[in-house]
Amino acid sequence: MLPPPLLLILLFIPVAMVLILPCVSALLSKQAQGMNKMLWALAALLLSWLGYFIYYYARVHGKSAPR
Questions:
Q1: Which of 29, 30, 44, 52 has its CA 20 to 30 A from that of 38?
Q2: CA–CA separation, 38 vs 40, rounded Å?
Q3: How far apart are CA 22 and CA 35, in angstroms?
Q4: For position 66, what pLDDT does the model report?
Q5: What percentage of the chain reaches a pLDDT higher than 70?
Q6: Does 4 fall in a domain?
Q7: Is 90 exceeded by the pLDDT of residue 18?
Q8: Does the residue 45 lie in any domain?
Q9: 62 Rama class: left (phi>0) / alpha (psi -120 to 50) / beta
Q10: Using alpha carbons only, what angle is made at residue 50 by residues 58 and 30, rounded to the nearest 5 degrees?
Q11: What is the 3-state secondary structure (H, E, C) of 26-57?
């Protein structure tokens, strides 16, 4: 079994990528400029949680519910 600090690091990397990568992508985009970049990054950060929730409810939660 992995030591706890290494396990935490291995769990942190994918979580950080899922949360941070869309924001960084919006900030580095050449299609938006100025305040629009900040708004896209903020929307990517806040609205991604909505997408995760919908996926969880539709796929993960739906499979565990008795029919």
A1: 52
A2: 5
A3: 17
A4: 60
A5: 90
A6: no
A7: no
A8: yes
A9: alpha
A10: 125
A11: HHHCCCCCCHHHHHHHHHHHHHHHHHHHHHHH
The answer, yes or no, to whether residue 9 has pLDDT greater than 60, is yes
Q: Tokens 């100025």 appear where?
A: 34
Closest C-alpha among 27, 23, 19 to residue 49: 19
Query: What's the domain count of the chain?
Result: 1
Q: Which domain holds residue 58?
A: 22-67
Residue 67, in any domain of the structure: yes
DSSP-derived secondary structure for 6-17: HHHHHHHHHHHH
Rounded distance, CA 49 to CA 13, Å?
A: 18
State the pLDDT at residue 36: 92
26 and 40 Cβ atoms separated by less than 8 Å:
yes
- Higher-confidence position of 54 and 33: 33
Residue with tokens 């708004």: 39
